[in-house]
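This protein record is not my work; I was only asked to verify it. Would you go through it and say whether the fold makes sense for this chain? Here is the record exactly as it was handed to me.
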Amino acid sequence: MPQNIDNNNIKNNIIKIIIPEEMDKFRIDMAISQLLPEYSRAQIQKWIKNNNIKINNKLCKAKDKISSQDKINIIIENREPIEDAPEDIPLDILFEDEHILVINKPAGLIVHPGAGNASGTLLNALLHYIPEQKNLARAGIVHRLDKDTSGVMVVAKSEMAQKNLISQLQDRTMYREYEAIIEGVLTGGFDVNMPIGRHPKNRIKMAVRNDGKEAITEVRVIKKYETHTHIQAKILTGRTHQIRVHLSHKNYPIVGDMIYGARKVVPKNSSETQIDIIRRFPRQALHAKTLKLVHPNQNKNPNNNPNNNPNNNQILSFTAPLPEDMNNLIKNI
């Protein structure tokens, strides 16, 4: 830990901090989140609300400003473990070290338990594979893919890594590239910058709407077919159903995406087998192909050698091959 943090009492769940000069006039929650990167700012704000943090032995609010040499006492609250049941669900692991786990999620696997899906999720699988994940919010999951979208996902294995990865998502420095098969033939690529919000009438859908949140998608052509196009889609924001909504809004729905207007288009002179494969495709033909991120091991302790971890501060790239069902669909369009 930095020299301004006394960790002698950490065994008693107490941390003492003397605010350094460079953090003079910082908000208290911001200063602590930078000094203790293994804890999220939301967690720190919760401790302040619960009167677990004092400035010079006085209670404070998250917005309070601190001065250099202020003495901060923090009573650490242990996070309540996740109560969802571990389940032995196979994981297709692309990469793993002490900080992150990268998987290739199959279509059909739900990420989080929810109404009607209390088990059989990625979260249940993580709790079985790494029991310690129960001590992390959402078992270390920092982003999601729809149930029927396949492809690359990263999971944090520590609170520090989770906070860092979430920051990369918020700062739009994490690169996410998808592939999809859409109905319609594109003449070329295009960009979509249209806000997305909850559909005004159908609560399970999202829609382009003026009062929605910013959403940016870049679409490029991989290959054109008679009635379909194989595309690449890069997202600069991470809104729910973003690629599906933007493509549908442009009248290029993804094959199999009945929620967002797929029309079951088939090429002329298709065989019965081809027609059956296209019209019965059981999910949206969308795959998270590539994920690039900065490795979260931002080791700032001068007493440790950052070269101890060969992935420290590196940009890592992970690719999941197009699944067999989408390859088979491409052969028949």
